[in-house]
Amino acid sequence: MKPERLERRCPRLGGDVSFAYCCTCEADKRPCFKVLDCWWERFDVVTYMKARLSPEAFEKLSARRPPPNKVASLVDLIRQAQERTSTD
Amino acid sequence: MKPKSIILPKDEIPRKWYNILADIKMNPPLGPDGNPVSPDMLAPVFPMNLIEQEVSSERWIEIPDPVLDVLSIWRPAPLTRATAFEKALGTPAKIYYKNEGMSPPGSHKPNTAVPQAYYNKVFGIENITTETGAGQWGSALSFACSQYGLTCKVFMVRISFDQKPYRKSMMQAWGGKCIASPSNETKAGRDALAKDPNTPGSLGIAISEAVEAAVGDTSGKTRYSLGSVLNHVMLHQTIIGLEAKRQLEIAGEYPDIVIGCAGGGSNFAGLAFPFVLDKINGKAIDIYPVEPKACPSMTRAPFAYDHGDTAGYTPLLPMHSLGHNFVPAPIHAGGLRYHGMAPTVSQLINEGLISPKSVGQMESYKAGVLWARTEGFIPAPETNNALAQVVAEAEKAKQEGKEKTIVFTFSGHGLLDLGAYEKYFAGELSDFSLADADIEESTKILENYPKPENIKSV
Question: Which of A15, A37, B229, B358 would staple A71 via disulfide (CB 3.0–4.6 Å)?
Answer without folding.
Answer: B229
